[in-house]
Amino acid sequence: MHTASVQQNILEELDRELAVTRQVLECVPTDHFDYQPHPKSMKLGQLSSHIVNLLKFKQLFIEGSERDFLDTSAPKPPPSPTSSEELLARFDQFSADLRQALHDSSDEKLGETFQLRRGEQVLMDRPKGAALRIMGLNHSIHHRGQLTVYLRLLDIPVPGVYGPSADAMGGF
């Protein structure tokens, strides 16, 4: 029996989550980018952009060894997209970049340590593969869940994520 490598397992999981995330992002209409369900919530456009920009953050887990949030020389996220088309184009590019970085990696490299810091304070110290799953994929899945709630509140049909949605089933 052949066991898949850590790299192969993460790539398979990533491909599944990217496909579902793209389906959800395809539902985000440009004319509702300013929608904010609560004063403490991000606007729809900000949340969607954050989900997309997290793809670059995940790539850092694979290619780098650390990220210090106090490092002012670190690359800043690009400006938020101003349209659904721009959002999806960035998603496609960042997804391809992340997939390539993971493809170019190995189980050995994914076992190396990645540190997330705020100056001297260590926020996370994990193997890259674990960091990618915990702070990368899980973080994105959390925000994608928020995004589906925004869509529901706007009465926009929500695609199925881990099975059919109420919209796909014709409601309850």
UniProtKB/TrEMBL annotation:
Decide whether keyword Isomerase is in the record.
no
| Metal-binding listed as a keyword | yes
Classification lineage: Bacteria, Pseudomonadati, Bacteroidota, Cytophagia, Cytophagales
Taking the record's annotation, the residue ranges forming a coiled coil are none
Natural source organism: Hymenobacter nivis
**Alphabetically ordered keywords of this record:** Metal-binding
A Pfam family of this chain: DinB
Family assignment from sequence similarity:
Belongs to the DinB family.
Q: What is this protein called?
A: Damage-inducible protein DinB
